[in-house]
Design brief:
It is built from six helices and six strands; from the N terminus they run E-E-E-H-E-H-H-E-H-H-E-H. With about 180 residues, the chain is α/β, with parallel strands linked by helices.
Length: about 180
């Protein structure tokens, strides 16, 4: 198996990171407080990784993430994610979260309901708190009951979540609920 590649790239909210193996994304990171810290976090997770020029499919994802974080329309649905190490419930949560478009939100409870597991709101929150693909899996678009922000495990916590929602013209105080 080939060693993973990774790249750190600048966005409107700071330096994000992405890691891949061939054309498949194996992880991504929101800003960690500077390019060096983001790079270090990627190397913690992928110690055999090397910083390199991304292949075209990954480059396209980087461009889409950069556009999204500038508040522009961006489609991340084509990003191929390696979920082989992701627990089955988390995978289902991530797949559903990927359907929530920019500017819209769902609650942890609504995701649990849509998964057919109405009592699993906390488990949904735990899955999103362990999201290895932020912001490709847009965990920032998932709120607590009543449209409250809930937690956010990225650097900056809920302030980062609120900033990302603001960029997308979605608000935790008065969420725009996405209905399938």
């Amino acid at each position: 198996m080939t060693a993973p590649g990774f790249a750190v790239f600048d966005t409107a909210i700071g330096h994000c990171g992405i890691a891949w193996r061939e054309h498949v994304i194996i992880g991504s990171r929101l800003p960690e407080g500077g390019a060096a810290r983001t790079r270090a976090r990627l190397l913690e997770r992928f110690p055999d990784g090397t910083e390199q020029v991304p292949p075209p499919a990954v480059r396209h994802t980087i461009e889409a993430v950069t556009a999204l974080l500038r508040g522009e329309a961006a489609d991340l649905s084509g990003a191929v994610l390696d979920m082989s190490g992701v627990p089955p419930f988390h995978r289902r949560v991530y797949e559903l979260a990927r359907t929530v478009p920019p500017g819209a939100t769902l609650t942890y409870g609504e995701i649990a309901q849509r998964l057919g597991e109405p009592g699993a709101a906390r488990a949904v929150g735990q899955a999103l708190g362990n999201n290895p693909f932020a912001p490709i899996v847009p965990c920032h678009r998932v709120l607590a009951a009543g449209g409250r922000t809930g937690g956010f495990s990225a650097t900056g916590g809920t302030a980062t979540k609120l900033r990302m929602l603001d960029i997308e013209n979605a608000h935790a105080e008065a969420p725009t609920l996405f209905r399938l």
